[in-house]
Amino acid sequence: MSDLLLLYRLHALWGGRKSIVMITYGLYFVAYACITAVGLVSAVQLWPHLHYSQYAKMCASDYKPKGMTIIWSFALCCEIMVFILTATKAFSLRRGAQMRSPVVTSLYSGQFIYYIVRIAHFIARINIA
């Protein structure tokens, strides 16, 4: 849901430009459809390897489906595209009167920090998986 809210914010930054809206919604839905498909395939592959662990007192598995290592890359691609579009808009407005406002400067810097942390998180998850 947070990704969808970020898309709404991006669309507001770009003034509702139809091409940006269509591209980002398309990318969003393709990314999450791929995540769903890979997740379902991985769950089917994982099912036979599940067992109850006496130590953990829950279901566990020592098998890791190969598809699980790429599941984060779809969301990462979506996040990178949104970051690039936000940065493009910020740099195109950097000399304008809008960017001289402390509120707008704070919003953009907060947005950039959020994206950098989020992208670093996805990259760390890919390397761990």
Mean pLDDT: 82
Domain module tally = 1
The separation of the N and C termini measures 23 Å
Shape: elongated
Low-confidence stretches: none
Number of strands: 2
Structural class: mainly alpha
* Helix percentage: 55-70%
In N-to-C order, the SSE pattern is: HHEEHH
Major sheet strand order: 1-2
Largest sheet: 2 strands, antiparallel
Tell me the fraction of residues in β-strands, as a range. under 5%
Number of helices: 4
- What does the radius of gyration come to? 19 Å
Structure characteristics:
single chain; 129 residues; mainly alpha; two-stranded antiparallel ribbon; 4 helices; 2 strands; 70% helix; transmembrane helix; transmembrane; membrane
Care to describe what's here?
70% of the residues lie in helices and 5% in strands. It is mainly α and 129 residues long. The protein has one domain. The chain has a two-stranded antiparallel sheet with strand order 1-2. Helix 1 runs parallel beside helix 3. The protein is elongated.
Brief summary:
Keywords: Membrane, Transmembrane, Transmembrane helix. By secondary structure, the chain is mainly α. It has helices at 2-13, 18-46, 71-92, 102-128; strands spanning 51-53, 58-60.
List the helices and strands and how they pair.
Layout: H1 2-13, H2 18-46, E1 51-53, E2 58-60, H3 71-92, H4 102-128
Antiparallel strand pairs: 1-2
Helix pairs in contact: 1-2, 1-3, 2-3, 3-4
